[in-house]
From TrEMBL:
Any GO MF annotation of the entry: hydrolase activity
SUPFAM superfamilies: alpha/beta-Hydrolases
Protein name: Alpha/beta hydrolase
Xref: Gene3D superfamilies: alpha/beta hydrolase
One Pfam family named in its UniProt record: Lipase_2
Length: 266
């Protein structure tokens, strides 16, 4: 896929969900979490935060508990990490829009500063939608394995999402086009080609001076939020001064875990 040639329009190509083998391999997420525990002293060497608020949005069927390790890590680095406090995420890009806007406003008012948003899977779709709707309140967006581009039906969770949320993914063309397009704030997509839930092509944003994709080799979808290399990348991205953006430096302690830079993707 030539990432740089993607139009901001939602022009879909037919993609398939990840294979059954990749989906079964999602069980390795336990190993990713254990690796993070073992490497926690190294992870604490990441750039320190400046205290700005970070809102963590969980994936489909997940709750704040899934984001607890990330929030704790960010708090240890010096960020003001917030949970979404909406219970389990049963979906609803349209139905949850008002509640998510209110949540972002509350976090912004409480902190008195712009909010960075880290969204895992469906949470990342919400994050991008919030950035489009309320760019004045958002500092940056980081997504983890989030399906917002190309054929977003190419996941192993699409049918369940439509059943539980009552929303068909094809019923929101205007919202989908906005979410898949260029963000009005700095944006980073962290993904894995071995994702067993979401086809990795659907996680790709168009690289620019303020947008990038970071591949984490061999990461699972369920493990992205607790994968040590992904956590390091999140911390590095959030540590950038407000209003500034530099592309991710892959020469850090987890260099071997990252794929090539955007301009080399094909």
């Amino acid at each position: 896929m030539a990432v740089a040639d993607r139009s901001t329009d939602v022009t879909e190509r037919r993609l398939r969900p990840p294979s059954l083998l990749l989906m079964l391999a999602e069980a390795r997420s336990v190993l990713e979490f254990n690796s993070t525990l073992l490497l926690s002293p190294l992870l604490m060497q990441a750039p320190k935060g400046d205290g700005h608020p970070v809102l963590a949005l969980p994936g489909f069927l997940a709750s704040d508990l899934s984001m607890a390790p990330l929030r704790r890590y960010l708090k240890e680095l010096g960020y003001d990490a917030y949970a979404w406090n909406m219970g389990r995420n049963f979906g609803g890009v349209v139905s949850r829009r008002a509640a998510l806007r209110d949540l972002l406003k509350r976090v912004h008012e409480a902190a008195g500063r712009k909010v960075s948003i880290v969204g895992w899977s469906l949470g990342g779709v919400y994050a991008r939608d919030l950035a489009v709707q309320m760019p004045d309140l958002v500092r940056s967006v980081v997504t983890l394995g989030s399906p917002f581009a190309d054929d977003i039906r190419a996941t192993n969770a699409t049918r369940l999402y439509e059943l539980l949320s009552g929303e068909a993914v094809g019923d929101i063309p205007d919202i989908r086009a906005a979410i898949a397009g260029d963000m009005p704030v700095p944006a980073t997509s962290i993904y894995s080609r071995t994702d067993g839930i979401v086809n990795w092509h659907t996680t790709q944003l168009r690289p620019s001076a303020t947008a990038e994709n970071i591949e984490v080799h061999f990461a699972s979808h369920v493990g992205l939020g607790v994968n040590p290399a992904a956590l390091w990348a999140i911390a590095d991205r959030l540590a950038q001064p407000e209003g500034e953006f530099r592309h991710f430096d892959r020469s850090g302690p987890f260099a071997i875990a990252y794929g090539r830079a955007d301009h080399a993707l094909s």
